[in-house]
Amino acid sequence: MSKFENVTITKEANIYYDGKVTSRTVEFSDGSIKSLGIMLPGEYTFNTHDKEIMEMMSGDVEVKLPGAEWRTLLTPEMFTVPANSSFDLKIKSVTDYCCSYIK
């Protein structure tokens, strides 16, 4: 899906890692939540509360999921992260992403 319709977007940005990772929250009429954002080059660790589906739409990215080795993504590509876990990213170029939170 390249376009979202009939959504509510939170104007205030979610800002992480001194502004190197930012996103905006998008809420759908069914109550589901996504975030759309940009990551600048760097290495990051993210913790999950809910299960997450990460869609990396562009960029040069490596990911290390729980219990796995580092792997290079061929964007656009997506991966799933279990709830109550963490994952690591190495961002080598500006990266555009969409994260879906699964309750």
TrEMBL record:
GO MF annotations in UniProt: guanosine phosphorylase activity; purine-nucleoside phosphorylase activity; thymidine phosphorylase activity; uridine phosphorylase activity
Keyword Glycosyltransferase: yes
Keyword Glycosyltransferase belongs to the record: yes
GO cellular component, one term: cytosol
Xref: PANTHER family: PYRIMIDINE/PURINE NUCLEOSIDE PHOSPHORYLASE, PYRIMIDINE_PURINE NUCLEOSIDE PHOSPHORYLASE
Protein name, as recorded: Pyrimidine/purine nucleoside phosphorylase
InterPro entries xref list: Ppnp (IPR009664), RmlC-like_jellyroll (IPR014710), RmlC_Cupin_sf (IPR011051)
Keywords annotated in UniProt: Glycosyltransferase, Transferase
Similarity comment: family membership: Belongs to the nucleoside phosphorylase PpnP family.
Signal peptide feature range: none
EC number: 2.4.2.1, 2.4.2.2
Function per UniProt: Catalyzes the phosphorolysis of diverse nucleosides, yielding D-ribose 1-phosphate and the respective free bases. Can use uridine, adenosine, guanosine, cytidine, thymidine, inosine and xanthosine as substrates. Also catalyzes the reverse reactions.
SUPFAM superfamilies, A to Z: RmlC-like cupins
Pfam entry (one): Ppnp
Reaction(s) the record says it catalyses: xanthosine + phosphate = alpha-D-ribose 1-phosphate + xanthine; guanosine + phosphate = alpha-D-ribose 1-phosphate + guanine; cytidine + phosphate = cytosine + alpha-D-ribose 1-phosphate; a purine D-ribonucleoside + phosphate = a purine nucleobase + alpha-D-ribose 1-phosphate
